[in-house]
Amino acid sequence: MPTYTAPTKDYQFVLHDLLKVSEQDVAGYADLDRDFTSAVLEEAGKVASEVLAPLNVVGDTEGCVLENGVVRTPTGFKEAFEQMKEGGWTALDAAEQYGGQGLPYIMHTAVNEPFVSSNMAFNMYQGLTHGAYSAILEHGSEAQKDTYLPKLASCEWTGTMNLTEPHCGTDLGLMRTKAVPQEDGSYAVSGQKIFISAGDHDMSDNVIHLVLAKIPGGPEGIKGVSLFIVPKFIVNEDGSLGARNGVSVGKIEEKMGIHGNSTCVMNYDEAKGFLIGEEHKGMRAMFVMMNEARLGVGLQGYAQAEAAYQNAVAYANDRLQGRDVTGAKNPDGPADPLIVHPDIRRNLMDQKSFVEGARAFTFWGATLIDRAHKNKDEDADGLISLMTPVIKGFLTDKGFENAIAAQQVYGGHGYIEEWGMSQFARDARIAMIYEGANGVQALDLVGRKLAQDGGKHVMAFFEMVKTFIKENEGNEALKADFLEPLKAASKDLQAAGMYFMQNGMTNPNNALSGSYDFMHMMGHVCLGLMWARMAKAAMEALEGGASDTEFYETKIATGRYYMARQLPATSMHLARINTGADTVMALEAANF
To answer: Which of 68, 324, 329, 477 gives 20 to 30 Å between its CA and that of 491?
Structure first.
């Protein structure tokens, strides 16, 4: 059975050597010193390895069961959920007035990684609840906040988001679920929603559904969508639970992965719902939940790759196969361990350099969210808006790719269920699809985000890269291995943006045909920037007399690998973008 150990030393490196969180001028960050974050992350790591990881295979093999209208979660899940609640992990960054600990979002993100790596399906129950909490906090009335937020923060009640319907996925303007106004100010919500993660289960007293629906007579399309709170059980005025609402589970979906999470078909039959925010402004409120979820899904991508990588490294060190071509490394044994072979090293270095770069990128994104929310920093808000489709799309594509790469290290054993590697691949696969399929993320990036606020934010990103290179061009240790590759990749990215400007206006397909390549190109540049910054931080630590020289030297060597072997992919993506739409759109639909 696979094992997992939280890489807490690397979390600390990213938080303190790279991001220097305790030195940032963001509310609450001054308290995030090394001792404090170490204590929190070490404890989270213990919960992940000792409580959640052993249940990962259990959840995968047992799945969830619908019995007489009640969803039963896998053996041990309920007890583990109680431990999570009792430990305060579900309310880490919730506001103190609602029973939370009031920590910054970066700490939620850092703690979330080991929980996702150890048991992605389990963590989704509290993950969706966190999103529902955030949406109500941002757009709910004071009465709604008082009623729902304390229970959501503690996970006594859990939350969901209900968007997708059988006939419409991303195109939410086609939805048919309706909400009819009632005399008491509530709405009667009717319709069917599908693919609802954590839609129902036996681990909380109530499930608070956030449901997108249309009020009859409203505008057509997406402009007519409103957001409603639809609880499983009606909440009485005194906060106690009342009658069962008109919401039920139609079935639990049979899925490729994340079997431990109850992905439900939800039926609403004149269920009592309560409007959040303004009528017909539901997407504004839902996007609070969706944008947070997209960073969390990007984290899922690399977190699954991290868990798979750890097990692949262990297997490569233990499995004896063949001899090192430069001379036997295990002369007393029948063969050398797999890890001596260059192709296995290449595979593992691909994984290691991606995961550590992705972690830095995601944690940096979380600090932008904190800066945007706590400091009301519009530039940070614009920058994370630009980065969100890249974090979600690029990191989940590459996360799945690297989970497969880890499986490959095992050879035939990776394909056998008893080794557990297929679960990482199967669980990671969904992250490329939900919260907006990755093709949609690429379209959002190129079609909307590049031009947002007159292109201000993408230009700020280019300037950020340029400034880092310029400020460090006198650093010979960085120049050849880090700065020059980053400069070349950034130029490729800018050239792609210029191609879109010059050719996208005359034929939008010229831009949209290259959007997926652009998303990946931008992802590589972002990880290249993170690696250049991490290399500088590691060099400074060594110069400062850091005791753990092996850790920092390994960090530099891993970054050097990424810059040499992965970052040059930007030139391939640019070549593809420059071919335009002609080859992509050449066939008539009937000729496919």
So the answer is: 477
Among 22, 27, 19, residue whose Cα is nearest residue 363: 19
- Main-chain dihedrals φ then ψ at residue 120, nearest 5 degrees: -60, -45
Residue pair 379/386 in contact (Cβ under 8 Å)? The answer is no
CB neighbour list of residue 322: distance below 8 Å, 6 or more residues apart: 335, 336, 341
Give the percent of the chain with pLDDT over 90. Answer: 95
- Give the pair of three-digit tokens for residue 92: 């880490």
What's the rounded Cα separation, in Å, for the pair 525 and 445? 15
Up-side HSE of residue 211: CA atoms within 13 Å toward CB? 38
How high is the pLDDT of residue 293?
84
Q: Is 138 a catalytic residue?
A: no
What six digits make up the tokens of 27? Answer: 């509310």
Angle at 579 between CA 577 and CA 580, to 5 degrees: 75
Report DSSP state, residue 228. E
Place of tokens 């069962």: 244
Query: For the CA atoms of 99, 103, 106, 108, what is the dihedral angle to 10 degrees?
Result: -30
Calculate the CA 47 to chain-centre distance.
20
pTM: 0.97
Choose the catalytic residue: 254, 356, 435, 553. 435
- Residue 338 and residue 409 in contact, taking contact as beta carbons nearer than 8 Å: yes
